[in-house]
Specification:
Layout: E1 7-9, E2 16-18, E3 23-27, E4 31-35, H1 37-59, E5 65-69, E6 75-78, E7 97-99
The protein binds zinc ion (2 copies).
Length: about 110
């Protein structure tokens, strides 16, 4: 007599897999979904990726910082990561450039 292993349908790949391979993963309003070992791994990898992407996005500093030239009070946006020299587009001087802290709160530390 062949011992029949209980199987269930994996919610991920829709394959019939033995119960011992199944892990119930919480999922949205459905409550939980049975997933086979491979799908659990896939799911976790996916989650990890989304998390990483989110973290990266939140780590991304603002591209430009608002600077103000103390000489002519000209305000301009400058990308600190860019290659352009930080100088006033109006008077061309770079010795009196200050971060304009009043108009924009910058998350970026000056390194
Ligand atoms: Zn599966
Ligand atoms: Zn200027």
């Amino acid at each position: 007599m062949v011992e029949k292993v209980k199987t269930t349908i994996c919610g991920g790949c829709k394959k019939s897999v033995p119960m011992y391979e199944i892990k119930y993963m919480p999922k949205g309003y459905e409550g939980s979904v049975p997933l086979c070992r491979q799908c659990v791994l896939d799911e976790e990898a996916k989650k990890q990726k989304t998390k990483e992407r989110k973290e990266k996005a939140s780590l991304m500093p603002k591209k430009t910082i608002r600077f103000v030239c103390e000489r002519c009070r000209y305000k301009f946006d400058y990308d600190p990561k860019g290659r352009k020299a930080r100088r006033c587009p109006s008077c061309g001087k770079d010795d009196k450039i200050e971060e304009d802290k009043f108009s924009m709160s910058s998350v970026l530390e000056t390194v």
